[in-house]
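ugh ok fine here u go
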Amino acid sequence: MQDYRKLEAWQKSHAMALHTYAKRRASLSIPANIAEGCYRGQRSLAHSLRIALGSASELEYYVILAGDLKLLSEAERSTMAKEISDVKAVVTGLLKSVSASLDAAQKGDRKR
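structure:
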């Protein structure tokens, strides 16, 4: 098991969730999935990271919608879009790392 609170992906998504919570609660799904996946092993973590990326894309749409409905100022919309983009980047990086680790482990199992 690893401490999800030490992961940059969780830290950034948690900060974004705090910032966006009042606007859209869907942002909570991102750090929650990262936290859950960390305690279920690498394969589950990869799955949870994919779900977190889906939630980030969903949130991205809600920010667009809220902006178009004039529920967010252009500055808020821009700030939130940047946060989401940053979160998606670190989660994607973590997913690539976890996937590479899983691939390496599978190759090692085949050699036995």
